[in-house]
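Hi W.,

Here's what went into the run:
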Amino acid sequence: MDKENIITLAIESSCDETSAAVLRGGRQVLSNIISTQIPIHQKFGGVVPEIASRKHIVNIMPVIDEALRKAEIELKDINQVAVTYGPGLVGALLVGVSAAKSLAFSLDVPLIGVNHLEGHIFANFLSNPDLKPPFMALVVSGGHTSLVHVKDYNNFSLMGQTRDDAAGEAFDKVARVMGLPYPGGPQIDKLAKEGNPHAIDFPKALQDKGNYEFSFSGLKSAVLNYLNSMKLKGIEINKADVAASFQNTVIEVLIGKALDAVAETKCDTLVLAGGVAANSSLEARLRAAAEKKGINFCYPDKILCTDNAAMIGCRGYYQSLAGKKSDLYLNAVPSLALQDVE
Ligand code: KG4
Ligand code: ZN
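Here's what came out:
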């Protein structure tokens, strides 16, 4: 079959979004349906895993039906099924993996298990049709912060990742103590626009040259200590200044390490990926810093930054071209890491 006409059904259910997408070839998205549970989890201040699993069970078939209907594709037209099998919440992942296995088995088509974080990187191929490896990818999501040297579609080398809290996790925790609703990242982003990014000097970790690991737990604690000490002294804080200074510190760390990694690997392109990529200031400043050094900068459309099945379909497509398929014993792997792939 002509590879440009391969129809992939993709499924994503790793956290609080149930999503299904249909792709023709690797990059043409025929549909990308995302059903978010954010309003359900908001009243608890974060994702409740048990509730997430139950909602995925309720949503998964209607979301798949909607993706097929919107793509004007019938079940018999599907050539392969791609699904996120990790990292994520085990109960949530199992819903998508079980649905994908059942469909692949009953349609007698290949099953492709996809690493969610690789999916985030591949979202860039959907938004940037001319993008080709090699490039450096900065992955900044709720649970992970990593720098990945993408040498080819199926050849990656991990430059470094977070030792403790991911950037998104730090955004969410700082927002929570400031009384902002979940998820905190977009709230801090909004509030930071009204604040002074240089008002408070927060610490940056692991700043030695050539160190591509990240650590955001010290920064998170510094913000919490600042808020507590101001409260004890009875000094009213300027929330916008705290948000702007915290966000500025995260962004400066990300930009510094990403540009160093590009220089070390002599890449000419930098791509941004993951939920935190939706941060308006991160995208604008990283783009400006990259372009100043003559580096091409790519970034996914906002809808493809957050969790979605289209990016999983794109990753699955390139895996299947390389023969990297799964069998029906595929299981959820909650702590699946980004690793070197050759
Ligand atoms: O990639 P993602 O959708 O889920 C994971 O795979 O983890 O990322 C979700 C994270 C959350 O921590 C959320 O607060 C953060 O992305 N986020 C943002 C923004 N939009 C979402 N962080 C900063 N600024 C934003 N505009
Ligand atoms: Zn994600």
